[in-house]
Amino acid sequence: MIEVQHYTKRFGRVAAVDDLSFTVHPGEIFGLLGSNGAGKTTTIRALVGLTRPTAGTVRVQGFDVWKDPVRAKAAFGYIPDRPYLYGKLTARELLRFVGQLYRVPGTDDQISRWLDLFRLTDFGNELLETYSHGMRQKVAIIAAMLPDPPVLIVDEPMVGLDPHAARQVRELFRGHADRGRTVLLTTHSLPLAEAVCDRLVVLDRGRVLGEGTMDDLRARTGTAAGGVHGDSLERIFFRLLEEEQAEADRRREALDPA
Ligand SMILES: Nc1ncnc2c1ncn2[C@@H]1O[C@H](COP(=O)(O)OP(=O)(O)OP(=O)(O)O)[C@@H](O)[C@H]1O
């Protein structure tokens, strides 16, 4: 379970995230969406203990990430958008290290199965510095999922993955949630979010524009009209941004009527 309450993060005078609250329950895939600079990565960084909230709290499996970091960090797997992997280790060495750290039973067999799933078996004993971007991304995904964490936190999961791997990863996330785990992901891929997320929050410049299931967002934006793209997340997303822009224009005019 993930609980974010009134999370605010300021960099100087700028609020990268302003009073964000949401809860993700076991069994759910939750999507954090928004334009560039919306505050998605800043939120993820707070959840994984890489940046301290200016205000508010973030909890993972009931543990405050800043007050109880060890227990909070033991409860989640994290797939960053630009994973750093030790280049001088082989994939098997890195994954064995992760397996030992989290005391994963039958680590070697599990690693073999994961490498096989991602078509990396032939490369398992090669140094990670020789891996392509997509291959490294796959190893980062395996490293996060190997301990079968109760909570999975994922920043832009599909960047660099081929279509086959992207579909597998989608299915892995769904399977993880269906086994009672909690999944939070950020993505710029609206079709991906629409396909896998049970609930979503749309951010813009640190503020929430909309939150809920696809049906909630359709109702909120009045985009339930028919047509091929009549109710797609893309249409909802742009409608929310247009509304926000219109509101900003209204505020500006109210301040400066001339
Ligand atoms: N360390 C930092 N110092 C100053 N400003 C920062 C810092 N990190 C993020 N910001 C600012 O916070 C805002 C939100 O950034 P963030 O990286 O969370 O956006 P994002 O939604 O992940 O964007 P993208 O889709 O481009 O990755 C941006 O205006 C960014 O410039």
TrEMBL record:
It comes from the Bacteria. InterPro entries: AAA+_ATPase, ABC_transporter-like_ATP-bd, ABC_transporter-like_CS, ABC_Transporter_VariousFunc, P-loop_NTPase. PROSITE patterns: ABC_TRANSPORTER_1, ABC_TRANSPORTER_2. Coiled coil: none annotated. Residues 2-230 form the ABC transporter domain. Keywords: ATP-binding, Nucleotide-binding, Transport. GO terms for molecular function: ATP binding; ATP hydrolysis activity. PANTHER family: ABC TRANSPORTER ATP-BINDING PROTEIN ALBC-RELATED (PTHR42939:SF1). This is ABC transporter. It comes from Deinococcus ficus.
